[in-house]
Design brief:
Layout lengths: L1 E5 L4 H12 L3 E6 L8 H9 L4 E4 L5 H10 L4 E4 L6 H6 L1 H22 L3 E7 L22 H19 L4 E7 L1 E3 L18 H9 L6 E4 L11 E2 L1 E3 H18 L3 E5 L5 E2 H12 L5 E4 L14 H7 L7 H14 L19
Parallel strand pairs: 1-2, 1-4, 2-3, 4-5, 5-6, 6-11, 7-10, 8-13
Antiparallel strand pairs: 9-12
Nicotinamide-adenine-dinucleotide binds next to helix 1, helix 5 and strand 5.
Family: Belongs to the NAD(P)-dependent epimerase/dehydratase family.
Protein name: UDP-glucose 4-epimerase
GO molecular function: UDP-glucose 4-epimerase activity
Length: 349
């Protein structure tokens, strides 16, 4: 199939492009590079053994999107392109609604115009807010707590309405828990342009000496060691689920919503210690007060993904830390400064 990957130059998108190419699909990337670098492209080509088509278009540019669909006979879309920082979304809600919701509307209009009826959507466990119980199942109440989360919920609802109106339109809503890690080659990974919002890239930067310590928010939760527990999932496992979702839409011709997590909760301190073992570096940390709105434990029930997609996470926390550190130590400044030279080292799969 020829698959359009929106936001394909970003963190999860790049890993997914690679898996799709490895499964024999043709991939077309569309990205405005607002949170990514074109330097990922030669690295992807190196790993896949062939170049990827990439178009620099903003999803909100309807004429640009129509022209893109006219140039490429697209069979299905994997939709990553979005802004994703919770804190920033509280400061700039309109920018988030515009980019994430208007961008999706324009994409759906262009898909309809081109007669494309299969979409895999990057949703998030953030749609559950603070869940009443763990593990979290897909039928748990949805109650978002910030504008970013609201954009994900609104898009899920929008997609449900489009499905209801069009029997030929099918969507896979994938609710990610906490994606971490990097491709085992160390050639692609997460490259936050600013202070990282998520734990793992922050831990990486502390281990690399770019930051002097990690603040652990809350040491008195009723958990294994008092720190918060989350469900971390290796980005390569996550990427694989997108290819499985494409197969599902093609095979079953119906929609689905699934959680993507390991089903295993890991505490912040467990992750820090696993990272120290994997990297051989110390990760100094300080336990500080809880953050407003944080909950003790959130982890997935991934049973539905296994039942419907035949998918389950394979990498454990040690592999997540090993690959995150491999990426960080080979690319201390991320993609910056590497230009777009194809790296010397052979790909590792
Ligand atoms: N990383 C996480 O922790 C996490 C968790 C749950 C859900 N998600 C969702 O997964 C998706 C991918 O996340 P990521 O971590 O790879 O983020 P990312 O920022 O690395 O990737 C997003 C990509 O989309 C591009 N983009 C953004 N707006 C665009 C627009 N209007 N037009 C074209 N391109 C645009 C960016 O340049 C970037 O390359 C997002 O939808 C995010 O909300 C991420």
């Amino acid at each position: 199939m020829r698959i359009l990957v929106t936001g394909g130059a970003g963190y999860i998108g790049a890993h997914t492009c690679l898996v799709l190419a490895e499964r024999g699909h043709e991939v077309v990337i569309v990205d405005n590079f607002s949170n990514s670098s074109a330097a990922v492209l030669p690295r992807l080509a190196h790993l896949a053994g062939r170049p990827f088509a990439c178009e620099e278009v903003d999803l909100r540019d309807r004429a640009g999107m129509d022209a893109l669909f006219a140039r490429h006979a697209i069979d299905a879309v994997v939709h990553f392109a979005a802004l994703k920082a919770v804190g920033e979304s509280c400061e700039q809600p309109l920018a988030y609604f515009d980019n994430n919701i208007s961008g999706t509307i324009t994409l759906l209009q262009a898909m309809k115009q081109a007669g494309v009826g299969r979409l895999v959507f990057s949703s998030s466990a953030t749609v559950y807010g603070a869940p009443d119980a763990v593990p979290v199942r897909e039928d748990a109440p949805l109650r978002v707590t910030n504008p970013y989360g609201r954009t994900k919920l609104v898009v899920e609802q929008l997609l449900a309405d489009v499905q209801a109106s069009d029997p030929g339109f099918h969507v896979a809503n994938l609710r990610y828990f906490n994606p971490v890690g990097a491709h085992p080659s160390g050639l692609i990974g997460e490259d936050p342009s600013d202070t990282p919002n998520n734990l793992m890239p922050y831990v990486c930067q502390v281990a690399a000496g770019r930051r002097d310590h990690l603040s652990v928010f809350g040491g008195d939760y009723p958990t294994v060691d008092g720190s918060g527990v989350r469900d971390y999932i290796h980005v390569v496992d996550l990427a694989r689920a997108h290819a499985d979702a494409i197969d599902y839409l093609e095979r079953e011709r119906q929609s689905l919503t699934v959680n993507l997590g390991t089903g295993r909760g890991i505490s912040v301190l467990e992750l820090v210690h696993a990272f120290e073992r994997a990297s051989g570096q110390a990760v100094p940390y300080r336990i500080v007060g809880r953050r407003a709105g944080d909950v003790a434990e959130v982890y997935a029930d991934p049973g539905q993904a296994q039942a419907l997609l035949g998918w389950r996470a394979e990498y454990d926390v040690d592999a997540m830390c090993r690959d995150a550190w491999n990426w960080q130590s080979r690319n201390p400044d991320g993609y910056t400064g590497t230009g777009d030279a194809v790296p010397d080292q052979p790909p590792v799969r």
